[in-house]
Amino acid sequence: MSKLIHKGTYTAFLCLLVLVLATGAFAQGKGKGGGGGSGRGGGSGSGGPPTGVGVDRGLGNASERSKGRSDDGLSNASTKSNGRSDAGHERARRAGNNLRRADDDLRNHPGIPRALHRNANDLRAGYQAALVSNPDLTFGNYVSATRLSQNLGRRNPNITRSAILNGLSSGRSLGQTLQDLGLSERDSKEERRRVERELKEARKNN
Q1: Which of 56, 55, 59 has the alpha carbon at shortest distance from 69?
Q2: How many CB atoms lie within 10 A of CB 101?
Q3: What is the pLDDT of residues 6-46, one digit of tens each?
Q4: Helix axis angle, 120-133 to 139-152, nearest 10°
Q5: Cα–Cα distance, 178 to 149 (Å, whole number)
Q6: What value, to the nearest 5°, has the Cα angle with vertex 168 and ends 146 and 154?
Q7: Distance in angstroms (rounded) separating the CA atoms of residues 71 and 160
Q8: Distance between CA atoms of residues 168 and 59, nearest Å
Q9: How many CB atoms lie within 10 A of CB 18?
Q10: Are 30 and 19 within 8 A, CB to CB?
């Protein structure tokens, strides 16, 4: 009789254990398979939803409920993002090309920094900073803006290198920018010719 009781107790224990394991597995499967565990506060697993479940499945349901409108929105957002990314890469490419040309100019014409009373590293660093806002700025225009501000700044305090660079960045030429800053057309032309002569001479002095 005791053996039957013992065997019955053991069998009941096994059944209870199987029931507990089965219940746990069912709960775990429901939490992972529903795709909304973390969204409803019930999925506190360490790894988040598995690949293809959760966010992706939610997007699929959203597409069905909105009859494709959500797909159009995602497509438009992706296109817009790629456009900004492409534009950023293109700006960086143009700026990089201009900076490499500046390096060549500084290496081949060490007289330029001396004429501007700057060392080559400072001149390059200033040009690199200017390229951030205007990637199409040539090194020649940057050098000219620097020299023009040196020649004209004392008599015309508003003619600074930054002011000239801002004018160039807005699409104005050097001559137009100088006139915008108060010079007459004649004075603007004379000052630009003076700087051209100075920089041409500086390039000869290696």
Answers
A1: 59
A2: 13
A3: 444 445 544 544 454 444 444 444 444 444 444 444 444 44
A4: 110
A5: 10
A6: 35
A7: 52
A8: 47
A9: 10
A10: no
Q: Is the full-model pTM beyond 0.70? A: no
Token pair of 150 as six digits: 């040196």
DSSP labels, 64-132: HHTTTHHHHHHHHHHHHHHHHHHHHHHHHHHHHHHHHHHHHHHHH-THHHHHTT--HHHHHHHHHHHHH
Instruction: Record the tokens describing residue 203, joined without a space.
Output: 């390039």
Q: Cβ atoms within 10 A of the Cβ of 68, count?
A: 9
* 198 compared with 24, residue with greater pLDDT: 198
What is the tens place of the pLDDT at every residue in 120-145?
Answer: 999 999 999 999 999 999 999 999 99
Distance CA 161, CA 51 (A): 55
CA angle 185, 189, 191 (to 5 degrees): 115
CA dihedral 39, 45, 46, 52 (to 10 degrees): -60
Place of tokens 């004075």: 187
Check residue 87 and give its pLDDT: 85
| Residue burial 153-179, b: 16+ Cβ < 10 Å; e: rest | eeebeebbbebbbbbbeeeeebeebbb
pLDDT tens string 64-101: 555 545 445 444 544 555 667 788 899 999 999 999 99
